[in-house]
Amino acid sequence: MRHVYRFFIYLFLTVMGLIMFLPFLWMFLSAFKTSAEVTASPPVWIPSSFSLINFQLAFEKAPFLRYFINSVVVMISSVLVTTVTSILAAFAFSRLRFPGRQTLFSMLLSMMMIPFEMLIITNYTTVIDLGIYDTIWALILPFTSSIFYTYILKNFFDTVPESLYWSARIDGASNWHYLWRVMVPMARPSLTTVILLNALASWNSFMWPMYVIIKDTNRTLPWGLQVFTTEAGSNPEQQMAASTVVVLPMIILFLFARKYIVGGVARGGLKG
Amino acid sequence: MKKQSTDRDMIFRGRFEVIEPYLYLLPFMLGVVVFTLYPVINVVLMSFKQDYSMLTRGFSSWGFGNYQKTLTDANFWQAIRNTLRYVLLVVPISLVLALLIANFLNQKLKGSAVYQSIFFLPMVTSVTAVGLAWKFMFNNRGVINYFLSFLGVKAIPWLRSSQMGAYNMTALVIFGIWNIMPFTIILLLSGLQNIDPQYRVAAKVDAASDVRIFFRITVPLLAPTIFLVGIVNTISCFKVFSELYPLFGGNPGAMGNLYTVVYYIRTSMMTYQDYGVASAAALILFGFIAVFTFAQNGIRKITERRKVR
Q: N or C terminus of chain A with fewer C-beta within 10 Å?
């Protein structure tokens, strides 16, 4: 009876796992197929050769290399700046004393429930007013501070015993020194989580770039891919090759950093 | 101003240290004020500005005109209906599936890490990119119809226009469930790991079957988490939008009737240049979200109080 039950569990998980993986499998395999193979019915699973021709053709038809570089630049800049602003603010909220600290922090927490969809209307006009519409800056500047990541970091900073702070201060360390020499190195796991979640969000961001980027050479990967599929009317196998380029970096990142990403989602997912 | 200060505070409180906290907050608050606080206030104001013009930034008068326009627009009601349908299908189905998967993953299996990696993968990948793979799989002669043909099902026009417009919605729902599964499994799994294993051990000693343990112990103890995950998922499903793009080439369904609320906001703004209606629709969406967020906070407070005792 126990064996039957175990077998059932494995069977269920394997079937569900296959369903979950099917789109990736189809994408990766199709990226190497010929156009006859990709539309064949019944479907051809394994491509006859694993040549990179579809990738080459996709990169020739649309500036995917440019999209890729844009995505990397946007991701690195916004992650870098957001991390610094979050560290500073989290430290101020956790350790420094100033009037209205609690009130301000709970106000910020309640702002976390505001969906970005609601802010887009004004941010769109702000970006135009700032003169950064249709530039890469429009993708970076609105994402330079995050209440959510500040909240995660503050929660960690709160767990560091106060005595450590005061002994450092008595030894003559300034707040600045204490933050960067003591707190930040200690917060490495939380920081890693924050950086990874932020990087994922930035890389996969689709809606906002669609609002503020028009020029082909300023697009990032998801938005570039979307235009590529509708405008060029291109072959499925090339679309799958391009999709693979979008998806693969984050899959590799995930395989190396699964614990941090999953841990971060588990801790932050239910906080509104 | 009265200030509570300890002796230690006094030692270090120079003039610089009074302004120091604000310097730490400045870069963060700059972003928050410009890109979150101001937009919130502005969207509320805009929703009451009638005949707002993007070019002149002028408007004719204050009033409820935008709300009236939105609430009498057939497309908006279509959007509400579709969004509610999507929420009511995606949230419960994904919860049940994720609960089963999380429960099994929690039972110390061989290869658990491999299973987890596969189940969590959709969380890190671009909706636009995987959506394309789904689009080809949903083709009339695609993989999904191929598998269904073994069950004797005739080719279903998932993404095409057909007399049964429901196929478009079904495809969107399947994609949506697939998308939200990783997040749901992770939250339920971490809830399961917080349950004291002694309950299970005790039940096993009493020779309770696994099925019985699942329904009599696991599910009741996990109930608060299940509720919370359901609410969080409801909120995120209300915002369904990006999923439409890869499946239908940027259109709201093959027959143009698969409007969602966020899609409606976008067309009001970008196609009709009607920022007032877009703002009003955004605030109505926010109303839905706010109700669920308050419910979420309420449940969380109750369960936390219980834990303390």
A: N
Distance CA B307, CA B309 (A): 5
Residues of B in contact with A236 (CB under 8 A): 136
Domain span at residue A212 reads: 62-233
- Considering only CA atoms, give the Rg of chain A: 23
Chain A residue at shortest CA distance from B38: A122
pLDDT score of B3 = 46
Q: How many CA atoms lie within 13 A of B235 on its CB side?
A: 26
Residue A255 within any structural domain of the chain? no
How many residue pairs from chains A and B have C-beta atoms closer than 8 A? 270
The model's pTM is 0.91
Question: Is A93 inside a domain boundary?
Answer: yes
Q: Which of B25, B123, B296 is nearest residue A92 as measured by Cβ atoms?
A: B25
Query: Rounded to an integer, what distance in angstroms lies between the CA atom of residue A9 and that of residue B100?
Result: 9
Quick one: pLDDT at residue B12?
Answer: 54
Q: Running along chain B, 309 residues long, what does each successive block of 10 average in pLDDT?
A: 48 74 96 96 94 84 92 94 95 96 88 90 94 93 91 89 83 96 95 86 81 87 91 93 89 86 93 93 94 86 69
**Chain B window 19-58: which residues touch A at a Cβ cutoff of 8 Å?**
20-22, 24-25, 27-32, 34-40, 42-43, 46, 54
Q: Grade residue A83 by pLDDT with cuts at 50, 70 and 90.
A: very high
φ, ψ at A67 (rounded to 5°):
-55, -45
A139 touches chain B (CB under 8 A): no
Q: Does A256 touch chain B (CB under 8 A)?
A: no
How many separate domains does chain A show?
A: 1
CB-CB neighbors (< 8 A) of B234 in chain A: none
What's the pLDDT at B308?
54
The pLDDT of residue B252: 87
In our burial notation (b when 16+ CB lie closer than 10 A, e otherwise), range A204-221 reads bbbbbbbbbbeeeebbbb
Long-range interactions of B264-270: CB distance < 8 A, separation 24+: B264/B75, B264/B76, B264/B79, B265/A117, B265/A120, B265/A121, B266/A211, B266/B241, B267/B75, B269/A120, B269/A121, B269/A124, B270/A211
**CA A254 and chain centroid, separation:** 11
What is residue B309's predicted lDDT score, i.e. its pLDDT? 47
Give a yes or no: residue B63 inside a domain: no
Establish if B80 touches chain A: CB-CB under 8 angstroms.
no
Interface pTM, i.e. ipTM: 0.92
The CATH number of residue B145's host domain is 1.10.3720.10
Q: Kind of pairing, strands B61-62 and B49-50?
A: antiparallel
**What is the spatial distance between Cα A91 and Cα A103, in angstroms, rounded to a whole number?**
16
CB-nearest to B36 from A9, A111, A254 is A111
The answer as to whether B171 is a domain residue is yes
Q: Which of B36, B119, B137 sits opposite A119 (nearest CB)?
A: B36
Query: Which residues, at least 6 apart from A207, have a Cβ–Cβ distance to it below 8 Å?
Result: A116, A117, A120, B241, B242
Enclosing domain of residue B195:
70-308
Contact assignment for A251 to B124 by CB distance below 8 Å: yes
Per-residue model confidence (pLDDT) at position B13: 59
